[in-house]
Write a structure and sequence with these properties.
By secondary structure, the chain is α/β, with parallel strands linked by helices. It has one domain (8-199, 243-270): 3-Layer(aba) Sandwich (Rossmann fold). It is 44% helix and 17% strand. Strand 4 (86-89), helix 4 and strand 5 form a beta-alpha-beta unit. It is globular, with a radius of gyration of 18 Å.
């Protein structure tokens, strides 16, 4: 019996990186998971990994910032597994520029994926659990549900060249604290995790002159960090390195588990002690 045995979890952006590790961590402790990625291939890989582990998962792919996505992914969880207990809003990417060079398209694209999308997912989640809680309480049951929103140290401290991303990640902390107050009477905890430097494809080391990019909805978006900057960051981090995706997943799992049933409205900074 795992700590989240029988629970149903939604993890956005779980086809790769931190999101995949969160999904796998939840499955190892007994949860069933709705996997999501913008692209079908990575999501299928995660679902296949979960199936090989003996777990259960389904995919709900597509753009999390689409207007119907929140309703669609919550419906997927209910249709596949009959309920929804855990929501992890993890999907996102960066599209950086200093403010004088940032376009409206850049601004809204990043705010939509990091702030508007979680808002819509959680609005749909509330519409589900409101009725479920009434039924559970009528039966004498108390079920604690969990929300974990992924923020960033850029949202806590700001970061040059990331006014869009920093604003979105600061906004998700405000949303977290507000929904902790709204959802508490339904036994739903709402917390955030703000990551510092975690070793993913978005922060992969680039050699001199290399220009890393990923494609997001037809856009070529620059990713990666120059090796010299990574070396400087590693010197500043007391633990001497960036975190691993599985370590990042562990901090999220804390807020998904019964160990945090009386913790709500908090933002945990995970940065190796920086």
């Amino acid at each position: 019996m795992g700590q989240v045995d029988g629970r149903v979890a939604i993890v956005t952006g779980s086809g790769r990186g931190i999101g995949r590790e969160i999904a796998l961590r939840l499955v190892r402790d007994g949860a069933k998971v709705v996997v999501n990625d913008l692209d079908e291939g990575p999501a299928k890989e995660t679902v296949d990994l979960i199936t090989k582990m003996g777990g259960k998962a389904v995919a709900c792919n597509g753009d999390v910032s689409a207007k119907d996505f929140g309703d669609r992914i919550v419906k997927t969880a209910i249709d596949a597994f009959g309920d929804c207990h855990i929501v992890v809003n993890n999907a996102g990417y960066t599209w950086d520029s200093v403010i004088q060079k940032m376009t409206d398209e850049q601004w809204y694209a990043i705010l939509d994926v990091h702030l508007t999308a979680p808002f819509r997912v959680l609005r749909a989640f509330q519409q589900h659990f409101r009725a479920a809680v009434d039924k559970e309480r009528a039966e004498g049951k108390r079920v604690v549900r969990k929300v974990v929103n992924i923020s960033s140290t850029s949202g806590v401290n700001g970061n040059a060249g990331q006014s869009n991303y920093s604003a979105g990640k600061a906004g998700i902390v405000g949303l977290t604290k507000t929904l902790a107050k709204e959802f508490g009477r339904y036994d739903v905890t709402v917390n955030a995790v703000a990551f510092g430097y975690i070793q993913t494809r978005l922060t992969k080391p680039l050699s001199a002159g290399e220009d890393g990019t990923i494609e997001v909805q037809g856009r070529q978006v620059k990713v990666g960090v120059q090796g010299g900057r990574i070396a400087a960051m590693n010197q500043m981090i007391p633990l001497g390195r960036g975190g691993l995706p599985e370590e990042a997943a562990g901090s999220v799992y804390l807020f998904c588990s019964p160990d945090s049933d009386y913790v709500s409205g908090q933002c945990l900074v995970v940065n190796g002690g920086l």
